[in-house]
Amino acid sequence: MLLERIYDEDLAQASYLIGCQAKGEAVVVDGRRDIAVYQSLAAKNGMKIVAVTETHIHADYLSGTRELAAATGAKIYVSGEGGPDWQYEFDGERLFDGDTITLGNITIKALHTPGHTPEHLSFLVTDGAFSDQAGYLLSGDFVFSGDLGRPDLLDEAAGGVDTRFVGAKQLFASLRDKFLTLPDYVQVHPAHGAGSACGKALGAIPSSTVGYERLYAWWGPYLAANDEQGFIDELLDGQPDAHAYFGRMKRENREGPAVMGERAPLQELDLDTVAQDLAADKVTFIDTRPNDQVHQGTVTGSLNVPAGKSVASFGAWVVNPETDPNPLVLLAPDQDAAQDMWDHLVRVGIDKVAGYVTGFEGLPVSTPELIQPEELDGFDAAMILDVRNRTEHSAGHVPGSHQLSGGRVMWHLDELPAEGTIVSYCQSGVRNSVAASALRRAGYDVVELDGSYAAWTARQQELASVSAR
């Protein structure tokens, strides 16, 4: 048996390819929309992808299940559990608790493990060529290394009302009745790692075992004592902010993400044409440089989505393809870099990219306004805006600041003052630059706190040290 983990550091998301070498067939679980990685992996191992499935209706990225099926002819399997309100709306064979997918000697058994979502499945894998007992569990967003999938996302991002309490009860039951009935040696392969917003304390270890989680995960003592209420209270306390784009992901994944088909390579665009399109508001310019370079001057009205491991996350914070139909123009050093960024963006449904440019000479340029920490006292700000997570804000913040995380700002403009200057900050300045660029594009007067909270804290410590002398 072949079991390969494909990990996206941008979204802290893991998908899996399971293959039977004897039959030359493979299944992809929780795939993403840029599918070349799965096709290459299957070809490298002399396999054909014959099945695609997913553990649940995802909220943090757009599923590649339909994309892979269209490209390979693979059969689609999705959950049929969860009741009428949680049914997929596209064609595919429905899996219920106990149903199986068979690839040669390999059996993949669906376990209904609700809690994170009502329809959630985990997949128990048996390598029949080695043993008649299951040895692996693809746990999706049910059990992570050291943590559990949060049950409050439906409330936070999908329009639910108090569904978190039912979800938490379901998680307790799923652990008790499904997970903890498995042998301790069963390997656990989750769908997310550290950095994902699908839990509050995910470990960076890529896999675990049932026995290890039973003994050492935070929830173990609650299950051992059958303390359901204590479990619920601890589970729901301190969950991070959910990004607002999660609601769009939920809806599109349920309906069925659009199939892109083969994408032509991005082309370098003529700057004169880009200038004309910008003037006519036909394109949106994406400045992919670090915030310190953006602060030296950037294309007027551009969005800062820094290149690196968070292109998809930051892109979805500030680009809503449902309300902003403009194709994007990416600033990139070359075609390969632009193509890589586009791959990240399609993972969150940002498909329309016109092309790329390697510079912006001749385009209208403006310089984002900054304020130094020592200038903040006495500054006439209509609002001091903290775009960090609420847990960070609770741990310490600029006095009088209003917390609204970067992933939610553009969906909650009603919380911002209609007039006046907003001073914004995050921890180091990266997230702040992303959010501030979107607010400026939307017409807000935004001044960024230079160095953000880290610089402000250093300033306070310096003042305290001087005062103590």
Descriptive account of the structure:
The structure is a single chain. This protein is α/β, with parallel strands linked by helices and about 475 residues long. It has 3 domains: about 1-255, Ribonuclease Z/Hydroxyacylglutathione hydrolase-like (Metallo-beta-lactamase, Chain A, 4-Layer Sandwich), CATH 3.60.15; about 270-365, Rhodanese-like domain (Oxidized Rhodanese, domain 1), CATH 3.40.250.10; about 370-469, Rhodanese-like domain (Oxidized Rhodanese, domain 1), CATH 3.40.250.10. The protein has a 6-stranded mixed beta sheet, with helices on one face. Strand 8 (about 105-110) and strand 9 form a beta hairpin. Helix 4 packs across helix 7 (about 230-235). It is globular and about 70 Å long. The N and C termini lie far apart (about 70 Å). The model has no long low-confidence stretch (mean pLDDT about 95).
Biggest β-sheet strands, sense, barrel: 6 strands, mixed
The largest beta-sheet arranges its strands as 1-2-3-4-5-6
Looking at this structure, what is the CATH superfamily of the largest domain?
Ribonuclease Z/Hydroxyacylglutathione hydrolase-like
- Poorly predicted runs of 5 or more residues: none
Named CATH topology of the largest domain:
Metallo-beta-lactamase, Chain A
CATH architecture classification name of the largest domain: 4-Layer Sandwich
CATH class of the largest domain: Alpha Beta
Percent of residues in helices comes to: 25-40%
**Assembly state of the chains shown:** single chain
Rounded to the nearest angstrom, the distance between the terminal CA atoms is 68 Å
- Beta-strand percent range: 15-25%
Number of helices in the DSSP assignment:
16
The Rg value, from CA coordinates, equals 24 Å
Structural class: alpha/beta
Number of domains: 3
Average pLDDT confidence is 95
Broad shape: globular
Number of strands: 25
